[in-house]
Write a structure and sequence with these properties.
Layout lengths: L12 E5 L4 E5 L4 E2 L13 H13 L7
Antiparallel strand pairs: 1-2, 2-3
Length: 65
């Protein structure tokens, strides 16, 4: 496994508390997930952040590479 690859049990995306509300953190970007509409997945309710994270993991929501 290369140093930039995540182990199978680690997801690229995780929900964490931001300075204002909750965010979906992208381990590859080392910051909030950048969605295809160019918005950042930050300043969300915890419930919405969980929904966005699940969508990113299952592919129903696209992120910017």
């Amino acid at each position: 496994m290369l140093s930039h690859e995540l182990s199978p049990e680690q997801s690229r995306f995780l929900v964490r508390r931001g300075t204002t509300g909750w965010m979906v953190y992208d381990r590859e970007r080392k910051g909030p997930a950048l969605l295809k509409d160019h918005s950042l997945a930050e300043k969300l309710s915890k419930e919405r952040a969980e929904q966005v994270r699940q969508g990113l993991v299952d592919g129903s929501i696209n992120c910017w590479p």
